[in-house]
Specification:
The protein has 101 residues and is of the alpha+beta class. It has one domain (5-97): Gcn5-related N-acetyltransferase (GNAT) (Aminopeptidase), CATH 3.40.630.30. 26% of the residues lie in helices and 30% in strands. It has three helices and five strands; from the N terminus they run E-E-H-H-H-E-E-E. It has a five-stranded antiparallel beta sheet with strand order 1-2-3-4-5, with helices on one face. Strand 4 (77-85) and strand 5 (91-97) form a beta hairpin.
Length: 101
């Protein structure tokens, strides 16, 4: 799967279902999630969330894009980046990383 964009050390790409383990590790970490939704997500919530995020890629007129961030050198998932419209129809960019990164 090709990169949406890249930096010297990172690729930003669409999610894959195989991203679940590191995605869940990030989303279930209260230190990572405290500024996102004030609480960590459960295994079941994450199991439901990842396929929903993937479905957004094919929605017409989508204004909710969340991508995986991986290291180029070893293709290791390290976090996410989001490009979304907020409730005021303003563009927002957000990101989160596994705590160790």
């Amino acid at each position: 799967m090709g990169a949406i964009f890249e930096t010297e050390r990172l690729n930003v790409r669409k999610f894959k279902l195989s991203d679940f383990e590191p995605f869940h590790k990030m989303q279930s970490n209260s230190n990572v999630m405290q500024y996102v939704r004030a609480k960590a997500m459960t295994f079941q919530e994450n199991k439901e969330e990842l396929p929903k995020l993937i479905e957004f890629y094919d929605k017409p007129n989508n204004d909710f894009w969340i991508y995986a961030i991986e290291r180029k050198k070893d293709k290791l998932f390290v976090g996410t980046i989001a490009f979304v419209k907020n409730e005021n129809n303003d563009d927002e960019t957000g990101y989160r990383f596994l705590e160790k990164y």
